[in-house]
Task: inverse folding
């Protein structure tokens, strides 16, 4: 059985910072990395789709952060149904180049967490900006059911 208390260190913050930018931070429980994300790329959508892919059993998913001119990539790897390894990689390549793990990079932060913790942090972020759609897909994660990963953007009226 997986020792949940040893892998629970995962916190994600995504805040709109102003016209064209979001501030993000990622923590593994011991250290925190703060970065930004340009609206040149839909990082929030990437994050939601990566979470949904992991919840549906994908072994690998990623989320791209454009910093102008450099980029980062949050890589999620599911080693079993309950454990997720996460790594935030930084690339010096400029947008619109699409970074991948084989390109030269440096690791900003890494760790492991439970699938439930990862999905919970993503759902918390989604709730800040999106409303649930009328039709949802229910995702079973062990004893927990998440039906909140389908999304539409909330209008700003």
Result:
């Amino acid at each position: 059985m997986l020792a949940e208390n040893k892998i629970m260190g995962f916190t994600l913050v995504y805040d709109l910072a102003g016209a064209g930018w979001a501030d993000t931070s990622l923590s593994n429980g011991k250290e925190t990395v703060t970065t930004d994300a340009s609206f040149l790329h839909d990082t929030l959508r990437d994050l939601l789709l990566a979470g949904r892919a992991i919840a549906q059993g994908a072994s690998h998913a990623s989320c791209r952060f454009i910093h102008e001119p450099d980029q980062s990539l949050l890589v999620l790897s599911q080693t079993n149904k309950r454990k997720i390894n996460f790594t935030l990689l930084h690339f010096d390549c400029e947008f619109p180049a699409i970074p991948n793990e084989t390109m030269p990079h440096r690791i900003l932060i890494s760790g492991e967490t439970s699938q439930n913790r990862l999905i919970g942090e993503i759902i918390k972020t989604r709730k800040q900006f999106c409303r649930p759609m009328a039709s949802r897909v229910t995702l079973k994660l062990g004893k927990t059911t998440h039906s909140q990963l389908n999304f539409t953007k909330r209008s700003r009226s």
User: Anything to note?
Assistant: Residues 4-152 form a domain with the Secreted effector protein pipB2 fold fold (CATH 3.30.2450). The longest strand covers residues 71-80. The chain has one domain: 4-152.
